[in-house]
Each structure stands twice: as C-alpha cells, then as structure tokens.
Amino acid sequence: MQHSGRGPKVSLRGASAKEVSRDALLEKVAQERASRLLVRKSAAAALLVQRFWRGRKVACEAAEREGAEWDAEFRANQQKSQSYSAHDLSRKVLRPFLFLLRHPSGLSADFPRAAKNASRIAPCFKLLLDSISATDLQSNYCSLAVGSVEEQSVWVYQAHKILELCSAVLANDGSAWTSSERQILPGLAMRVMVAMSDASMWKAFSQQENLVKANAGVLSLVEWLVQGRSGLYEAIRSYVFTNFPIPKTSTDHGHPPERDKFIVTASAMTMALRPMNVLSAALSDRKEVNQEVVKLRESSSCAADVFVAHILTIPFLIQRLPPSLVPALQHPSVLAPCLRSLGVPGSTQKFAASTLSHASKVEQELEYVPRSLWALANLVSLVSGSGIGTSKSKEIGGRFVKGLNLGDYVKALCCLLSDLSPWIETKQQQQRFKSRYTAEDSDDIDGDHLDIFLASPHSPSDDDDGDGDRRDFLQLLRDNLKPVYQSWHLQQLLEACKTPSFMNEDVFEIQDLQANALPTRKPLGLLEVAKLYSSFLAAFTAFKLSSGPCPILDVLALSQSLFPLLWDWLTSALNLPSSVGVSSRAALETSRNFGTPKDCSAAKTTGGKWAAALVLRMRTKGTGAEGSSTTEKGSSSNLEKVDPTRESEASEGAFQLWSFDSMRRGPAGIPADAVPVLTLFCDAYAHLLVVMDDEQFYERQFPFTLEQQRVIAAMLNTMVYNGLMAASKSQNAALMDAAIRCLRSLYERDCRRSFCDPALWLAPAASLDVPIANAARLHREVSASSAKMRDFFQASGLGGVLSTIPHVLPFEKRVHIFRDHVKQDKMAKRMGGEAVGPGPGTIEIAVRRDHIVEDGFAQLNGLGSKLKCCINVSFVNELGLSEAGLDYGGLFKEFLTNLAKAAFDPGYGLFVQTATEEGLLYPHSAAASLGHGLQMIEFLGQIIGKALYEGILLEYSFSPLFVSKLLGRSSFLDDLSSLDVELHRNLMYLKHYEDDARDLALDFTVTQELFGRHTVVELRPGGADIPVTNENKLAYVYAMADYKLNRQMRPVIQAFIKGLSDLIAPSWLGLFSAKEFNQLLSGGEHDFDVEDLRAHTRYTGGFTESSRTVKLFWEVVTGFEAHERCALLKFVTSCSRAPLLGFKHLQPAFTIHKVVCDAPVWAIIGGPDVERLPSASTCYNTLKLPTYKRLSTLREKLRYAILSNAGFELS
C-alpha cells in the first residue's frame, strides 16, 4: 500500500530521512575524543609546569637559606680562626658550597645570584688550598683520597665538581664579578686545579703507602679530566681566545702579560699538558702488558686527542702564548702522543667546531676555517721552533726539536693535509667558478670563509680594519709554515729516509716498545716525503700563500739530492729504461731482419742505409741531440737510395722506441703509490727548468744527463697523450696538470735548442689518422668550452690534445688545421654579409710608397676585426699619381709586406734586433713610452694577424722570446742573454756563487733607466728590505729574469696581442711553438727549392716545359744567388718567401706566360735580342716572359726587372 501523506518520512529505526552517515559519525566521535585528550594533556602539562616552578621556587628558597647558613657559619669560623678537619671541610664547607654552585651557569651574568656565588668562591678556594698544604694528615683534605672506600667515593665526587667549577671560572668572562674578583678568581681556580692533580703538593703524605694511593687517586682524576666532562680544555681554549689576541706579526707578542695573567696562563697550559705527562710516567713504570696498561694507553690516546682537538687547533697558538711557555709544548712527551693522534686517518673528525661568544668577529670567522689548518700550522711551528722570534741564523740552519720522530711527524702532516684536501678542492672550484663571471655575478656566491686567505674579504665590512687583519693573518700563516719551504727541512727529511734511525729518539716510542704494546713502525721513506710536499704544494697554491712562484718549489729546485732520488724511485716503480740512446736504437735496428741472411754484405749495406735514413729523419737542422752540427745538403742523396718501404719501417721503429708501454694507459696506469712522487717530480722539475741555464742543462747535465732527459720527455709525452685521449675522467687532475707543465717546459727547451729526436714528440700519435676538418672542429669546440676555465687538460680526445700538447701531430698537419680555422671563419664572415674577397663592400685605401707605414696606420688603425674584410690598395708614386693596375690581391700583398718591412725595421724605433747572429726582432722596451707607441704596436699586431689570416709570408722573423709571450708560453733564463748579455752573465754568476750571497749586498730591487731618468723598482713587495741570501738567491734570479722578460715588456706585449687577437684567435696560434710560428709567418729559410717550383709551374700563352725560353729561364734561376731567387719570387707573387708547405699549395699556381716579341732568328748566336723587360701580374702569380733567344739577355733583363723595385710602370 503506497503512502500518500505529505508528512516527514520516518524510518523504521526512528531517525529522520536526513540521518548522519557511519563514516561521518566515526569522524565526529574521533574529534571529540581527541579534544578530550588534548584537554587532559593540557591539564597535565599545567600541573607539570606548576610542579616544576614550585620545585624550583622551593629549591631557590632552600639555596637561599643554605647560602645564608653557609655564609653565617663560614664567617663565624673565620672570626674564631677555627681550622677544619678534612671531614668537616668536606661535609660542612664543600658539600653546601658545591650545592650552591652545582651548575656552571651559576656564575654567568644572567644568573640572579651570580655575584653572591662569585663572592663565595675566593674564601672557599683559599681554605681548600690551605687544607691541601697542611702537613697534618687529619687536616689535609686530600687525605680522603687514601681513606676508606666511602671517603674515597666522597672525595672523587667532590674533586670532580671542584675541577668542573675551576674550569667554569677560567672560561667565565667575569662580567658579573667585581674587578678584584676578575683579577683573583682565575688564579685561585688554577691553583686549586694544579694542587689537586699533583700528589707531590699534598704535604701530609710522607709514607710510601700513602704516596702510592695518592698517585693512584691523581691518576684516576687525570683519566676523568681527559674524558671531556670537566670542560677543562674548552675553558683553556676560550681563555686563550679572550685574553690573547692574535699579534700582527710572528715576532710581535705584544706587551708581556701581567704577572697574574701569566701565572694563570702557565697554570692552564700545565693542566692541559698534565694528563699526557702523568699517563706517560705511569706507562713508563709498567713493563708488562696487562689490562691496566691497555686502559692507560687508551687514556693516553684520549689525552692526546683532546689536547690536539682543543689546544693545538687554536689559530696561531704559538704567537699568542708568552714565548717562555712554548718550550713545554715542544717536549717529546707532548709532541709524540700528539703526532700519533694526528697520524691516525680520520682523527681530525674529532675537531668539533665551537662557537666563541667572547672572541672578536674575525676570530669567530677563523673558527669556520677547518681546524686541521691551524693544527697543521701550529705543529710545523712547534717542531721547528719557528714563530718564536728566531734569529736569521737559525732560519738558515734550522733543525727539528730534539727527540722528534720524523716518521710520525710526516704521517701526521699528511693526515692533516688529507683532511684539508676536500676543503681545498671546494675552494679551487669556487675560484674557477667565479673566474667565469663578472664581479657583479659573483657577489651572491657563498665564500664559505675561504677568502680569508685572499686579498679581498669574503664578506663586506664597515671599515678597512678587517682587510688589514686578514692580511696580517695571512702573513702569520706564512710565517708558521715557513719551515716547510726552507732547505734544512727538506734535507733532514731526506737524510731520515737514508738512515731510518736519524733523529728517532722518541721517548714515547721507547715506552711503547718496553710495554710491547706497539709493533715496530715502518721507517720514513721517500714516498711519504713526496706525499707531504706534494700535498703542501696543493695547499700553498690554493691558499695563495705567496705572490709569484710557490716558495716550496724554490726549495725543491735548489735541492741537490732530491731529483736523483725521485727519478731513481720512479724508474724502478714505473719500470722505465735508464736511457734510450744510440745503443738502444742499434739494438732495435739489429733485431729487425731487413736483408737476406745469405748475403752478409748486402745486409750490412741495407742496415747502413736504414740507419742513415733514420738519423736523417730524426735530426733537425741546427744543434742535434748531442750538440752535433747541421746535416750537410749533399748527404740528402742518401735518402733517395733508401727503399720507401724500409724507410717507413724505420720511422715506425723510431716511434715504437719512444712510446713506453707502461705509460700507454695514461695516469690511470700509474700505481697509486707512485702518483704523489711523480706529481712532486713534475712540479719541481717544471719549476727548475724555468731557471735552469743551458750550461747546467747541456754541458754539466745536472741533475740529469741528456739521455735521461729524453726518457723523461718520452715518458711524460706518452702518459699525457694517452691521459688526454682516454675517455674516462678518473685520471688524477693534479698529476696531469703537473705533467703537462713539465712536458711543455721540456718541449719548449727542445724547440729552442734541440736535445731530443723529432720522433720522440710524434711517437704517441704516430698511428693517429683523423681528417683535418674533424680535428679542426674538435679543436674549436674544446677551445670555446675551456677558454674561460683554462683547464684544457680536462677535455678528453683529440680536442684536448690539440689544445694542450699539439706537438704530437706533425707540423704540416697542424698548419692544415690552422688554415681550416681561417677557412671556417671566412665562411662565417661571408654568411654574415661581410666582404672577405674581391667585390662590393671591400675597404679602399691609397698609400704612398715612401710613407707606407704612416698612411696604412692612418687608414686602417681602429678597424679591429673588420680588417678580416677584403682590402683594395692603390699605390701613389712620387709624383702623387696613382700607379696603374687593379688590385685583385697582389697589390695588397705587396702593401702588407712592404709595410711590415718598414715598420719592423730596427731603424724605425719600435723593434730592435737580438744580440744573436740571426738578428731576430723583439719590441723596444721604451715603445710604450713613445707618443702613440702602444697604438702603433697594436696596429702592427693587426698587420701580423692579417698576414697570417691571408697566408701572406713576411720578411722578418721574431725572437723566440717575443713569440713565446705572444703564445702565452714560459721563457727560459738563457733567453735573457738575447736582451741583456751583461745582466744574464751576472745572474749566472750569482746562481753558481758558492760563498755567502749576503757578501754581494743585493736586494730585491732593480734600477730602471728611461730617457735618462732612473727609478728603483721592487721585485717583491718590500724588496728594498729583503737581502739576497743563499736561501732566496734562486728566487732573486727568477724575479730579476721575470722582470726583464715579462714585467718590463708586459704593456707592449699586451698591446701587440690585443691587435693580433682581433684577427687570429689565440687558441689557433697555440698549435705552434715559437720556431714554428716564425715558419708560419715568414716561411723559414730565405731561399726555395727550384725543382719544387719547377714541378708545380703552369705554362700559358704557348709556352711548354720544353720551350727554349722556358729552359733558359730555369737555367738562369738555378744560377741565381739566394737573394736573387727571393727577389724573383717577390716580383711574381709579391712575397719573397716560398709557401710554407711548398709550391703545391701556392694559389693561384706559379705561371709563366708567353709574351711574343719580334726578334731575328740569328739572335740566338748574335745580333739584337728582345729589348722588352719581363713583367708580372702579382694578383695571379704570373710572370710575363718575352721570348728571349739568348741566355745572357734573359739573365740581364730578368735581373734588372726583379731588382729595380719599381711598380707597374716598369713594363
């Protein structure tokens, strides 16, 4: 039955139709339950808070009553002059007293009763000191330490609390105390601490049994001190920071501290050292190994750990402390356990950072620097005694402190440097990252407190005081680490490597051996020393601790014994040959069977030809590997008789000879132990090569013979090439960087004066066959991506090779790569709408032949990179008339060559010639001081760039020194002889001076003369006050050479490079050495191969190779002098030099065009011959040759034409 009413629908369960769902009901119930729970928790929390505050209030009230009672009783006893027994002192005085000062915060200024608590300390400590000094056992408080078990327990508890209170007093800044309390309380606290931890000060103990128990109590107390709960070491660290600011210099210890402060400081350092001394004495008394000895050893290690973590890591600790306290830190009982603690890998993780609220802002910043750095600096300073006002004589002949175990010392420093390594790498990455951006972009980069070691602060400051403080800190850090870059430090470590027992009087080690608790340790070896100095090199470089070359490198380079030791070690570890000389090559030759065994004479002859071919291919013109003279031209015929197949086999054998199998995996194939040794070797030797003179390298052959130099070069060449070609990036970056620098130095020295076979440099890439276009593309990609970072060795593959060691590819292939760069650049310019060839948009200029430099400068200067466009030249003769002829390239070539010849002429004044026979060019040092001098130098750089860009050869060649600067390469000390022979001779005298260099009265200054005025220039900041000594004479030689070769010429060099870079990218020129640059620019020798020209000459107009006039022409050219042949080439092509890669690459090809002239047939034997002169079309490299009949006529007319130096009017 259907319901039809309109009333509300009622369910059978009694609810309305809009009932609440089950889920909603459960959620509502849960919310109500949570609300009730929150109410209950709130009520419980309120009760807890009330209970806490009520308890605190009751406690405070009880403390007030206890304090009042204690004060009243203490005053009453003082008035009665009543002495306390040990039990009464413990129960009636110390117990309530320690209750009142149960928290260290009770002394802070924020605590309400801090002043009252401070006023109770002095009388209580005085009473305690009187009790400890009492001779009556019943009255001596420390008698409880040898009493019953209960008494001992009470004494131990109270002693711990007393020492905690003493530490809190020492760490407190005293802001809540009166002036007298600030003066008295720290001293009293330290006296109490010293007295309680030294049983010899307990006067009442005379019986041996009591002394043994007393010493046991002290030992237990000392063990508790080093567990870290007393706060002693944190308090000492805070006290030193608060009361001893960092001095300005290493010898400036400020005013002597007041007597009270000195006593407090001495007592604090005594307490810092006491645990190690007490535990060391306890260990020395125990001969057998048992559980007690093991526990003592653990406590001893813990004591050393906590001392190192809190005291030895105080920045500039040695300079802060009074000098009379430093010797205590240098005692073997202190140094030995500290060195062991630091020598454990991972030990520096215990250096927990702390916040010093009372230190200055800069000192708080120093706290963010890894504590390993401060431990390193303090340790080096301690073991050598530096930083304590040492005299100059001691600096020269220093030594390590007596009893120092050098093995532990080196191991500890290596661990500290290893801990610093990630921080150093982060710092270097940030520096490289910042170098990619402008200063505005780098403002937001977090310096992470790294720039403390730089000239600019890491964060802005309100004034300049922060910058000055940081510079002072940097100088202090240098002073602390100074022993590392002194010669005595290195020499004594090397001596210890030879004699393991050298300076090995380690008291702690003797105790360990007596207890048989430590196995015999590995003696100091060369590997550990190499690791140490390699790590120091990285640190000094990262911290920028020196301006100029790293001083460690000076010490390494001066060492007479280091390089032979390192090389002998490497030769053995890397399985390198001792030499690869003539005997080795002969062995290789005889091992190959080139002739038939049946015919011995034929085999002998073939071997001789093969050897001759090998020698001829591997020798370059000039001085050979052994200083031999240039190969004569006549001997070149031997090459023609050698079978090409055998010649190829000979070259392959030479390449195999110089490619070492052990180096073919690159740095990845170097054993891990050998990496630091090889890195140090490369770093130090690269530095030595810069200042090594030719006499030392070639004549004395020290430190290596020329045979060894070849092995070193071949080893590095193979390793670096394979490292760059490896796809993996796991190679050691530091090793690669050092190896690349050393390899480059060796290669550049070989380019200057050869000592290696050319096959050595080409050997690693001998089998590499890559299309020129691909190689050029890879080179451009690497150059573009690495130009800002300057980390070319990080790029793998052929691109990295071309950017880093391009010499492994033949010169001809690199020239092709260079020309491909130019070709691609011209294509890009053409696509951009610029005119790079004849046609619309070219630059038109008109120049006078007798003012070619001035006119060229006036019309072309300021165009910059627009000089890449095509330039049309018209010449104006002496009458002011334009010469006939259109410029399709030939006139511009003539203009460029004549302008360069005039501007680079020494008579013009901008360039001078070297003192060598070649008379090569380099800029005049005074060019920058002339009017428009730098602008003219920049313009000449553009001219050279345009010549290279268009492939036009010029007349002059530049000094290798000047070219090295253009290429960004290093110079050698002997390059100075080409600039200043007398200065070079004097520097060589100083370098080899065996007596005391101080006798020469030199300092780090140089007098510069310019236009009659003399000015003194400092080679280093403050150089006038730095005398030249035997220690720094190598640095002086380097600085003087650097000034003459670099600093003095820098403005001129930079201007020339700026102009050159407008047309030629620096990375393009990086493909070549200085000698190769001159070849690229001027084409090498001032002559050419007539047969090569003849083989690539075209004939037009009716001429053929068999024409009579053509035959006469080649006969005349062959008979010409070298300068006449060059004049002929310039007459036809406007350039006197042959194309760099031969006439095959001359575009357009050299052409002889027939000019028909009437002449009687009998002109061959007599009568008038053709009167017309030869002419040329330099745009098309065409010689227009009349049909001469007689040889004499052709010679006369041709010589007149090429030597007249006339223009187009000639014909």
Short description:
The protein has 1211 residues and is mainly α.
Can you describe what's shown?
With about 1200 residues, this protein is mainly α. It has 47 helices and ten strands. Strands 7-8-10-9 form a four-stranded mixed β-sheet, covered by helices on one side. The protein has a two-stranded parallel sheet with strand order 1-2. Strand 1 (about 845-850), helix 35 (about 850-860) and strand 2 (about 870-875) form a beta-alpha-beta unit. The longest helix is centred in the first third of the chain and has 59 residues, at about 20-80. The chain is elongated, with a radius of gyration of 43 Å. The model is unreliable at about 385-395, about 440-465, about 500-510, about 515-520, about 580-650 and about 1205-1210 (pLDDT under 50). Belongs to the UPL family. Its EC number is 2.3.2.26. Pathway: Protein modification; protein ubiquitination. This is HECT-type E3 ubiquitin transferase. It catalyses: S-ubiquitinyl-[E2 ubiquitin-conjugating enzyme]-L-cysteine + [acceptor protein]-L-lysine = [E2 ubiquitin-conjugating enzyme]-L-cysteine + N(6)-ubiquitinyl-[acceptor protein]-L-lysine.
How are the SSEs ordered, and which strands pair?
Layout lengths: L21 H59 L5 H15 L13 H19 L16 H23 L7 H18 L11 H18 L6 H12 L15 H26 L6 H20 L6 H4 L5 H4 L2 H11 L18 H6 L4 H14 L7 H5 L9 H30 L29 H16 L6 H12 L8 H8 L11 H18 L7 H8 L3 H12 L8 H10 L8 H19 L18 H5 L2 H14 L16 H18 L2 H7 L5 H20 L7 H20 L5 H5 L9 H15 L10 H8 L6 H21 L11 E6 L3 H9 L10 E6 L13 H14 L7 E3 L7 E3 L9 H18 L9 H7 L14 H11 L13 E6 L2 E6 L14 H15 L2 H12 L4 H4 L4 H9 L7 H6 L2 E3 L7 H12 L2 H12 L17 E5 L19 E3 L4 E5 L4 H13 L8
Parallel strand pairs: 1-2, 7-8, 8-10
Antiparallel strand pairs: 3-4, 5-6, 9-10
Helix pairs in contact: 1-2, 2-3, 2-4, 3-5, 4-5, 4-6, 4-7, 5-8, 6-8, 7-8, 8-9, 9-12, 12-16, 14-16, 16-20, 20-27, 21-27, 22-27, 23-26, 24-26, 27-30, 29-30, 32-33, 32-34, 36-37, 37-41, 38-43, 39-40, 46-47
Catalytic activity: S-ubiquitinyl-[E2 ubiquitin-conjugating enzyme]-L-cysteine + [acceptor protein]-L-lysine = [E2 ubiquitin-conjugating enzyme]-L-cysteine + N(6)-ubiquitinyl-[acceptor protein]-L-lysine
EC number: 2.3.2.26
Pathway: Protein modification; protein ubiquitination
